[in-house]
Amino acid sequence: MRKLLSLLTVLTLTTPVPLNVIACGGTKTPPVVDDTDYLTLKQTAQDKIQTKFANLINDSSNLRKVSDVTNGKDIIEYLKSFSEDKNIDPKEKKGKATIDGFLEVLKTQVLTISNNLVSKYPELKPLFNGINPNDILKINTDDLDKILTYRNFIWRGKDFGVAGFDADKYGITAWYHLTANLQLDFTCLGENAKVNTTTINQSYDMYFANDGSDLNQAVDFITNDVKGKLDKQGVVKVEYTTANPFDDSFVNKKTDILNKIKTNLENIIPKLTIATTQLTNLKDYHYMNRTGTNDDSYDNIDHNPLTMIKLKYHLDSTVDFNSAWKTPVDNRLNDFQTVLDKWIADNKLTTITNPDKIFVIGNYKTTNWSIDGLELKTISIPYYVSGDKTRIEDTQDSLDIVDKLFVGANPLFIYPKNISELNSGHPSTDHNFFNFNIPPTDFDNFVKDDVSLQEIYEYITNKTTAFLAKQSIIGNIAWVNSNLSNSTQKKH
Question: Does the global pTM surpass 0.90?
Fold first, then answer.
């Protein structure tokens, strides 16, 4: 119920108990709450940073030739003397030159990522208010002893499990693998909007070859061969019972899904290695999400439709919560159908069985995976979650919950029909006000014990949980062929 608690912190709470009862217990001015969730924003930013490093691999920015690196000719001669995994020694003259040459490249890339966190993601701006974009992300160079590692990359004569691969076709005569073990100083706002700096550990694999080589084409050839093998497997289907949109357990079960997909991948592709950091790269789109029309249409992880009640109403209006809920839900059902059709086309799937029971679609993004030490580019593997109910049936479940929360007899939340119902100490008109229907005995105890606002929030959360409790179970996860019945599911 973390999301519910977060929602409740922005709702102004009053009580149907007469206001003079409040006066008897002493009136307190509600504290000003900074509702910026810095922790969540920070995690989002860190996820974006990891994605950006993955994109460097997709853009071939991790593939370097001699002329790309300062003192590249000396560096490639220096690397010829290595025959096993070893940290580049900054105390050696040639070792220091090697580290400096690659750090120059890396600092430019990190600076671009740092600026992009502000310029490309407006939702993150509160996290960096007053901070120079150049200072958000920097490489910590205090300890150079382990910052760059030589990997004993055996490439001569290898086909990397791909028939017909030959390094000579790509003009490769020298090919080295280096791992940058970066400590990134990440500066942002934290609790109470105070600036703080934390450390992010980021591993980044680079490949270094002679001028005249075409590493990009070589890696593309291998990556495309792997993609072709995975395309033949079809789509990943996750069976999921009780598709309760209020429940966080689906989000918590993603690691289970990823581990099973990871095992399948390693069984299909010989010599495949997937790093543990891979377990963050599951992007999806739930049918109750708000948006899904841009390039990131499957990257909207917000499974709590309670956010829909955060609509702006005039306090003197009469609000029919049932219709105010039902109309947006109907719209979202239709929006999801549009996104579902696009997802099927984007992933070149034909048709899917029981499309009316699909409530999450997504793509497993492969990063930090390699074959025989060669880092591959990202491959998108489609997957969907199929519930035991149709989306229409599941929507009706949520409408029933809303009825219990806001509409039916003795609901937990009561919308004030008249501004006179509100305590005069509260601001007016432009906020979302709800009366929480606290039993008089409980309210008397609040006044008597002088309970904190946080305790009241916890009380509300516990009460609301009883309405929302359902079991959610991950079922079978498997690759399935997608050439079955066609997709049709419009609004009810």
Answer: no
